[in-house]
Model the fold of this input.
Amino acid sequence: MSDIFETIDYKKDEELKKHTTMRVGGNAKYVFFPTSSDEIKSILEYCIENNEKYIFIGNGSNIIFSDKGFDGIVIKLSGNMSKISAEGDRIYAEAGAVLSKVANLARDNELTGMEFAAGIPGTIGGAVSMNAGAYGGEMKDIVEYVDILENGEIKRYENSEMNFGYRRSIVNEDEHIISDSFDRIIIGAGIKLAKGDKKDIEARMEELKAKRIEKQPLEYPSSGSTFKRPEGYFAGKLIEDTGLKGYRVGGAMVSEKHAGFVINYDNATAEDIIRLINDVKDKVYEKFGVELSPEVKIIG
Done:
């Protein structure tokens, strides 16, 4: 086995706040930046042989690391593994490709169906894993197949095999993130769209962008929508009706613009964010008897 510390780009004792959109978290033992599935395999082999914890991240938009950091190896796919290409009515995107760039490529190739994803601050891998969605669209509506690294081999899963549901797929259905053995790792995805008019596509993307700017606290670091939608309710409405808009713990705050967003308002720590999330859950349950489940993953 090749020495991953000689052949693959990495950083030691790296601040995780640099790699998450919430901008909190301690340091990781190592952060690796693989460029191919072969490099990912080498990192995984090293982790298993040396009993190292590991975790995959994309753009870090749906994850909060604790202030203690992560005593293991973080494998970051955004950046190096982010190639995208279009042919006919199909796009192929590597797991680290940012959704907005994939949506822009679709627009430039006059392909419609991905407009909803243009403003989601994540990568293809994370979006497919959790079946991300917005404004009436979900990844399951456009994903044709997914290339997954499983037990050291790449296997292609068709859409029907992905078990897509609300914010889940076969990749994360067990909520299993920190690993000590080979798991299913998304390498890339094939997306099937429809031919459309570029001006119409651009107009829809601009319309959704304007809605996001109006309704979401994009001027502050956050992890996007913080809670999953409870059946029969809307998380943001429950939080607002509990009187929690503007509620603060340290530097963390429930957005005054949209109660479904927890934001890093003023140099928050991860502990501030986590305490606020737990407070919101407790207060909403106390008032309405509804249990909120975080959409964001908390590590450590």
User: Anything to note?
Assistant: The CA atoms of residues 108 and 272 lie 42 Å apart. The radius of gyration is 19 Å.
